[in-house]
Give the backbone structure.
Amino acid sequence: MSNHQLAFLLARITLGINFFLHGFVRIPKLEAFANGIIQGFEGKMLPLSLVEIFAYAIPFIEVILGVLIIFGIASKKSLTATAIFIIMLITGCAFKEDWSAIGTQMLYALFIFFLIKNLKYEVWAVKKSSGE
């Protein structure tokens, strides 16, 4: 395994574990988590019904994306889906004017960009399609 491959593998697993555990620890306290998100959007421009749906979905999305990334399952598609998820989180935080959270999410976006850009170094992955 080359240094590039090792770096990619460790970065992929690190990101995957981060996403997986974000969701995993939130699921047992889903009601409180979702209510906290919803309360943070009261009086903002986004409809609370949309916020509520997304708030309840976030932990499950994080768990699913985490598993896909950890195991390298359809990595290009999984990482693209993760980037879209981050874009949605950034959009929500912009409506809340939570600029510090956006800064953190931009770091995730850069991390995801790094992985997509370096997919040619992927090793130890379950691949559903060729050409990733």
Observations:
- The chain has one domain: 26-119.
- The radius of gyration is 16 Å.
- Helices lie at 3-26, 30-40, 48-71, 75-96, 99-117.
